[in-house]
Amino acid sequence: MANQSSPSSIYCASFNQDNSGFAISSRDSFKIFDSTTGRLCYERAAGAFVIVEMLYSSDLLALVGAGEQASLSPRRLCLFNTTRGSPLKELNFLTSILAVRMNKKRLVVVLVEKTFVYDLNTLVMLDTIDTVPNPKGLCAFSPSLEGCFLAVPASTTKGAVLVYNVIDLQSHSEIDAHRSPLAAIALSSNGMYIATASEQGTLIRVHLVSESTKSYSFRRGTYPSTIYSLSFGPSTQLPDILIATSSSGSIHAFSLMLAINQRSKRSTSFLGSVLPDSVSDALDPAHHHVLQNAVPSGIRSYAVVRKIEKLEGTSSPSQFTSIRATVSVITYSGYFQEYTLSINSKNESLWTLEREFNLYPVISS
């Protein structure tokens, strides 16, 4: 594996809604890549940006400047058309923009104590959500129009989550997930499940959004670590895999589907069951598959599950023999990595590095 100890030149990194593309920005430019091929699709030398958000693979981008140039204020959101190479619309705010999320109907803008919801097509403001102080802009968004939810912290002293229905424009629920404040949140693409991690970073919890109940709890490790990212695998129902990256430099994969199969054999309770809030609520460590030292310790990273392949067993059509997951990783030291994670029916796993390339030659060109 390449040496990734060089200082970061990446200001931000994000995958689009279906993980088919990703964006990065540096001190003087932003660039769009195809996740499958690694091909550079678009680049623009226009200064430093702290947010570059894609809308699937369309020509629409949401851009927020880093404030290093007078024209790129962190309080201004620019909706940019890559085909025309020009802005479509700009929205100005009183404080810095900390996060932006989009789907085909909604635009969400997160500030430190307020979150704004817009109709993406008309840019009419639909709602303003008053939130607890959220200086990191922590949020999660499910792009599905059928289950379109926004999740933001609901407390500064504990790990509570406010879940808001962005289509119906109303609060859905509040989930008490952890004793300490949140560090990471993720929603499945269909909006059915939410994963959370606290600042302690030792437990990852998965809740069923419709019932606001804790369905599963996975132990990442014994010692505290900062969770940099959480991401569900693609699925129309319960995702097979949840991926996490942390400051320890490891990539963690949790087998949600295998956990269901194991629990359903032992108990009549199913997804709605609530586990006790204690160390014992962590599920079997066999469902935790770790790739150690994938990234140097302390280097920020962002991982997603791009694709899941399931091979069915011969004894029963409903029994699979293995899962192959394609996991893509962006490191803030300037690398893109792609792994195949194979998990067989015995829950034995193998991580294989399929490709890795340095984003620095592209950044510095």
TrEMBL record:
Keywords: Repeat, WD repeat. One of its GO terms (cellular component) is phagophore assembly site membrane. Its main location: membrane. It holds the Pfam family PROPPIN. It is found in: Preautophagosomal structure membrane. It is a peripheral membrane protein. The keyword S-adenosyl-L-methionine does not apply. InterPro entries: PROPPIN, WD40/YVTN_repeat-like_dom_sf, WD40_repeat_dom_sf, WD40_rpt. Belongs to the WD repeat PROPPIN family. This is Autophagy-related protein 18b isoform X1. The lineage of its organism: Eukaryota, Viridiplantae, Streptophyta, Embryophyta, Tracheophyta. The gene is LOC108848848.
